[in-house]
Amino acid sequence: MTASEALLVISLVAAAIAIVIVVFKLFKLRSEFQSRVQEQYEAFRKNELQALSQQYEELAQNKALLRFEQWTKAKEEEIRKDAINRSRVVTIGKVSEQVIPFHPDFSYNPKDARFIGSPVDFIVFDGLDDKEVRKVVFIEVKTGGATLTRRERQIKDAVDRRLVEFKVLSILPVPAVTQRSLRGAHLIAVEPADPIPTDFSLMKDEISVGRSEDNDVVIPHPSISRVHARLMHRDGDYELTDLGSANGSFVSNQQVSAPTIVANGSELRFGSIRFILRF
Fold this sequence. Notes:
Strand content: 15-25%
Helix content: 40-55%
């Protein structure tokens, strides 16, 4: 092989290698191009899906709000009438309870009856007006097919088992300021509903509120936690503290997250039950 032939062979080999390298880079660039195109397409599709999802969600919320407003307008009058009827029934029931001693079926002297409302309606000191008390009778008034509540049954069972005592409690005089401030303190139900009492007298400096019967203010309602909140009386004011209740405590529709001073006449809400605080 001559020198020129050897040079030609080397040139051909070098050219072949160069072609292979070019082809390899071409395929590599093509693969990278396809990968980048795929990534950009996926990012575009993701952004479009998010935008569409957000638009559909906003449309759904607007549609639901519109339907709710339409339903509210359609049902507003019906709801108002139902609330008026419920209030009228509760009021008639409360008035009826207090005039029961004058009912023909009431077998005791009305002068001997004392209306207390909760946890039972009346205590009758039979013979008190005749200056000779013969017995003491607990009376709970029910209408229609109403039955005793759990607390009322417990009281009846205690009386039936003669677990009733009379005690004299001798206490030191309460300072005049505290006496004056506590005497008129009340929680008054905004929308009375059986079996929740319409009026709670606050006779202590520290009042526990909850569904459990161990509380000072017992509210038998599913929205109330067993131990729901605490009312503290100090320096002539009341302070409300929520005790980690499930449905919260509110002052004038503002949720309580820390001890909060409550003004006279403020609306308090425990769960879904509303009261007015008067002191």
